[in-house]
């Protein structure tokens, strides 16, 4: 078994491996496999389980905490403290573009940077809970400058944050010029709250179908292959995409062209889309802090990067299960994936 980086003592290393063994095992290649299978919360299941569903919504971890509530808070802070007033968007200037781009870049730099700093720069927990024991590649020609992290960061800011910013400015420009229908919180408080708390559900639906679409061979060869160069992803892999994919990915905010909205809806939706890939691509199952660790919900999407044709959604709605693309990490699921791909492959005449 490959030992973690010696950022902690040998005694702490042995203790950490003992903790890891409570949650998973390593194969002959030193790849980590959690005992816990990928699953869905107790909603949208049959027979219905209303009490379990309600408990999950209000528990930690659950629907709101920690992730969704965090993205809502960051979105609120971004709109009310880092953004110009809506009236200022009626005429887009270079200054507005710079402020918006800088704001979104700062959010990405800090949030993605936290995961990168802990897992990859300081290597605070070595390889404990790391799915693939290898570190990001620095000598692979398929990446820009032969460096995986450098490649990912360039795509993230050069394309990802840029397209996020342009979509945000475009929608708010239309809103500021009364082209779109706006609401005030006091006028429709129930609608306002409903839209805020269901953003994740909308994003899950949107992401699943966009993700399936970009796995269509022509779109994959044109765009999505860039993201899938990261078969051993790290936090910066989350937004490492081709501009076409970035537009499709952030197009989740275009729903507000058709429904009355508050500017905060746009900010939270784009913030959710822009930041949530960091933990999902961390490459670790659990975040270790002191003697405690917590699941960061990255296993399902790691399996997608490992096997490609499974787990297209974010995991709240059982879309992959409904459409037959679910992989729970078990050997049985892997056998089912091989069988499905074999049946889908063109038959030789």
List keywords for this structure.
single chain; 349 residues; mainly alpha; two-stranded antiparallel sheet; 4 strands; 51% helix; globular; disordered N terminus
Secondary structure elements and their pairing?
Elements lengths: L9 H12 L2 E3 L5 E3 L15 H9 L8 H15 L12 H28 L26 H29 L12 H9 L1 H16 L2 H8 L18 H8 L12 H13 L1 H4 L5 E4 L2 E4 L3 H9 L11 H4 L8 H14 L5
Antiparallel strand pairs: 1-2, 3-4
Plain-language structure description:
By secondary structure, this protein is mainly α. The chain has one domain. 51% of the residues lie in helices and 4% in strands. It contains 14 helices and 4 strands. The strands form 2 sheets. It has a two-stranded antiparallel sheet. A two-stranded antiparallel ribbon has the order 3-4. A hairpin with a 5-residue loop joins strand 1 and strand 2. The protein is globular. The N terminus is likely disordered.
The percentage helix is 40-55%
Helix and strand succession?
HEEHHHHHHHHHHEEHHH
- Overall outline: globular
Strand content: under 5%
**Largest beta sheet: strand ordering:** 1-2
Q: Strand tally, please?
A: 4
Major beta sheet summary:
2 strands, antiparallel
């Amino acid at each position: 078994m490959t030992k973690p980086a010696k950022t902690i003592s040998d005694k702490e290393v042995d203790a950490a491996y003992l903790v890891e063994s409570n949650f998973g095992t390593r194969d002959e290649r030193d790849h980590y496999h959690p005992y816990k299978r990928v699953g869905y919360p107790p909603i949208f299941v049959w027979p219905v389980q209303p009490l379990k569903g309600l408990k999950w919504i209000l528990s930690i971890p659950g629907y709101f905490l920690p992730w969704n509530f965090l993205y809502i808070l960051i979105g609120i802070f971004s709109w009310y403290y880092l953004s110009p007033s809506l009236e200022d968007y009626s005429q887009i200037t270079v200054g507005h573009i710079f402020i918006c781009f800088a704001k979104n870049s700062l959010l990405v730099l800090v949030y993605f940077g936290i995961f990168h700093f802990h897992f990859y720069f300081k290597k605070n927990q070595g390889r404990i809970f790391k799915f693939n024991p290898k570190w990001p590649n620095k000598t692979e020609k398929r990446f820009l400058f032969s460096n995986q992290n450098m490649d990912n960061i360039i795509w993230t800011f050069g394309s990802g944050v840029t397209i996020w910013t342009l979509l945000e400015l475009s929608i708010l420009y239309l809103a500021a010029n009364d082209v779109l229908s706006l609401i005030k919180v006091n006028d429709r408080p129930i609608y306002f709250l409903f839209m805020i708390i269901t953003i994740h559900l909308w994003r899950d639906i949107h992401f699943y179908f966009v993700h399936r679409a970009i796995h269509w061979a022509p779109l994959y060869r044109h765009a999505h292959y860039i993201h899938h160069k990261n078969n051993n992803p790290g936090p910066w892999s989350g937004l490492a995409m081709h501009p076409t994919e970035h537009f499709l990915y952030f197009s989740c905010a275009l729903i507000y062209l058709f429904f009355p909205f508050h500017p905060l809806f746009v900010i939270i939706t784009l913030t959710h889309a822009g930041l949530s890939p960091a933990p999902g691509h961390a490459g670790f199952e659990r975040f270790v802090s002191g003697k405690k660790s917590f699941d960061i919900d990255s296993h399902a999407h790691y399996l997608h990067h490992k096997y490609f044709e499974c787990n297209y959604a974010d995991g709240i709605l059982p879309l992959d299960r409904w459409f037959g693309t679910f992989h729970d990490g078990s050997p049985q699921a892997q056998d089912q994936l091989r069988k499905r791909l074999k049946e889908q492959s063109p038959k030789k005449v």
